Amino acid sequence: MTGAVDEISETLETEIVEGILPPGTRLEEPALAERFGVSRTPVREALQRLSASGLVELKRRRGTQVLNPSIGRIVEMFEVMAELEAVCARLCARRASPELLATLHDWLERCEQAAESGDPSAYYDANRSFHLAIYKGSGNSFLAEQAELLHLRLTPFRRQQLRLPRRMRQSLTEHSAVVAAIEAGDGQAAETAQRDHILIQGERFGDFLAQFGARS
Amino acid sequence: MTGAVDEISETLETEIVEGILPPGTRLEEPALAERFGVSRTPVREALQRLSASGLVELKRRRGTQVLNPSIGRIVEMFEVMAELEAVCARLCARRASPELLATLHDWLERCEQAAESGDPSAYYDANRSFHLAIYKGSGNSFLAEQAELLHLRLTPFRRQQLRLPRRMRQSLTEHSAVVAAIEAGDGQAAETAQRDHILIQGERFGDFLAQFGARS
DNA sequence: ACTTGCCTTTGTGTATACACAACAGAAAAT
DNA sequence: ATTTTCTGTTGTGTATACACAAAGGCAAGT
């Protein structure tokens, strides 16, 4: 089984993304090796793979730690995410098929239900599926993969946002605007709507951090 | 020295990008280990790193080989590259500084010189620098890194294009239009000009391949 | 008390060895 | 003659061992 490195990297990825391993956490190979009951070799490969996804940072001779980007860096990442999603939305509008529209409406509805029942976790999942549908709906699988990867990288910094008051309902309204634009075949409108939708998240992230002292 | 894995990965990266190791080439660890005079361990890490850059493909239990994407895949990658560059150009126009404009004009001139002397290699280098300047000129370092990485991944499929007749002069004209738009602060014009500039490369790639039989 | 140098400890970088899966070729059976 | 199976070989996956760099603590000197 090559499953060792797969299992390790997937487990660590989940724990990083879910915040169990917060940014800055040191990942020491001997400890992980003992934890997973394997030698250091597969652990190293797993860390290398996580480094490829941009989730951890490998400093030479200084060990591995969960990536702890500066605020400016995170804002930059949200900016790129916004542009990627905008492109996806534009392509969706251009190539929209009945199936895609049905899928989008479906997830939109689930988002609505989650918002009404005030369940942030359910909303988070439905929201994620909605965005993934837009990525794939672009018709460009490479673009979809890139968007999904960046989405994953930003997850640790986005999850906390839904706890902000009224964020769910506002997000829902923005989603509706995007779907409407796609349905109308208006690429420009879909692009700007989706870009703004993501950029607001970046701004909200800034607001969120402003509540505490600024990190690095 | 951690230099072993660095040296190996950089050497292989160069050889892949320059076409010395064509797409599909198998990379066997024992052979590489002997070639570089090291054990398999650093070789494996180097291959893992190249896999992260998207230059090689790691199939489980089936070895490593230089990535050999399908034509459709390459077209998709060019499409994403076009969008990334378009965003960079738009941001350049918005944030253009005198220094950036000077740099762009400088590289534009070098492109011109290379085109006049009919030196594809020199043009290639100047062209690359021109595009890198636009990436960095976006003011978003994360975006610049992503664009540079994708640019690298596409290099094996772009180098051959400059041998096509009149491509250099046409490329030059397109560059001028982009710089003019940036200088005028017209983000929309810069965006579309740069996008078209890259998309043409993608189309040219299709033309190029059409001369032979289609690969996978 | 503070600084500076050495030493110990910890953790990474690399090498080597073993286990096993996958491919290739040959031999045997139909 | 074709197919199937067995076996040898090749190459990857993992474990273990050693080398070395870097961080931290302690002691000695100022």
UniProtKB/TrEMBL annotation, chains A, B:
Sequence ranges assigned to domain HTH gntR-type in this UniProt record: 2-69
Query: What InterPro entries does the entry give?
Result: GntR_C, TF_FadR/GntR_C, Tscrpt_reg_HTH_GntR, WH-like_DNA-bd_sf, WH_DNA-bd_sf
Question: Sorted alphabetically, which Gene3D superfamilies does this protein's record hold?
Answer: GntR ligand-binding domain-like, Winged helix-like DNA-binding domain superfamily/Winged helix DNA-binding domain
Tell me the Pfam families matching this sequence. FCD, GntR
What SUPFAM superfamilies has UniProt attached to this entry?
A: GntR ligand-binding domain-like, Winged helix' DNA-binding domain
The UniProt keywords, alphabetically, are: DNA-binding, Transcription, Transcription regulation
**Molecular function, one GO term:** DNA-binding transcription factor activity
Q: Which residues form the signal peptide?
A: none
Name by which UniProt lists this protein: GntR family transcriptional regulator
Among PROSITE patterns, the record links this protein to: HTH_GNTR
Ranked from the top, the taxonomy reads: Bacteria, Pseudomonadati, Pseudomonadota, Alphaproteobacteria, Rhodobacterales
User: Does the record's keyword annotation contain DNA-binding?
Assistant: yes
